[in-house]
């Protein structure tokens, strides 16, 4: 996390952990780290059709969740910029799978008279969750504080 980041003061005051490893990431690699999640979701968009025809929708959602858990685990334990790049790509791919297949799966398992309502409620709650995530206050403590002794 570079010093030009808006979250840096809160992160350094709240955590007071060994964050010197990430203090020296230049703005360019920081932007690449952010962009890899979008790239992963873009790539997942091309794979949803073939994956959905070979595997069931439920299995595709579970694969996406496993990829998300694995990517967060790598991000928490790594000190390598390459591993960070890879984990963000993996997170984007998993997020793309989950977001694409969740709506399809909900529409498939709902009874025909409730399909529209279930689809609308699912997309509505996703939108509400995103809005709450954007405007939430006060900010949660960084992940390093959760795992501190």
How does this structure look, described?
The protein is mainly alpha-helical and 149 residues long. The protein has a single domain (8-146), classed as MFS general substrate transporter like domains (Growth Hormone, Chain: A, Up-down Bundle). The chain starts with 7 loop residues before the first helix and ends with a helix. It is built from seven helices and no strands.
Write the layout of secondary structure elements.
Layout: H1 8-15, H2 20-23, H3 27-54, H4 57-77, H5 81-109, H6 115-135, H7 143-146
Helix pairs in contact: 3-5, 4-5, 5-6
Structural class: mainly alpha
Q: How would you sum up the major sheet?
A: none
> What is the gyration radius calculated from CA atoms?
18 Å
Helix content: over 70%
Corresponding CATH architecture: Up-down Bundle
Distance between the termini: 22 Å
- Provide a count of the helices: 7
**What is the highest CATH level, the class?**
Mainly Alpha
Strand coverage percent = under 5%
Give the topology string: H per helix, E per strand. Answer: HHHHHHH
Arithmetic mean pLDDT: 77
Overall domain count: 1
Oligomer: single chain
The unreliable regions are: 1-5
CATH third-tier fold name: Growth Hormone, Chain: A
Count of individual beta strands = 0
Shape call: globular
| The CATH H-level homologous superfamily | MFS general substrate transporter like domains
């Amino acid at each position: 996390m570079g010093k030009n980041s808006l979250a840096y003061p809160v992160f350094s005051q709240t955590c007071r952990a060994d964050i010197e490893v990430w203090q020296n990431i230049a703005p360019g690699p920081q932007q690449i780290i952010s962009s890899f999640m979008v790239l992963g979701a873009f790539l997942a968009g091309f794979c949803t059709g073939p994956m959905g025809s070979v595997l069931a929708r439920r299995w595709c959602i579970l694969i996406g969740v496993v990829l998300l858990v694995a990517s967060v685990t790598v991000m928490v334990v790594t000190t390598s910029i390459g591993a960070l790049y890879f984990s963000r790509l993996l997170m984007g791919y998993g997020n793309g799978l989950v977001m694409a297949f969740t709506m399809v799966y909900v529409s498939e398992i709902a009874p025909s008279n409730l399909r529209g309502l279930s689809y609308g409620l699912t997309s509505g709650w996703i939108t509400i969750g995103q809005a709450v995530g954007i405007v939430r206050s006060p900010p949660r403590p960084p992940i390093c504080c959760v795992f501190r002794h």
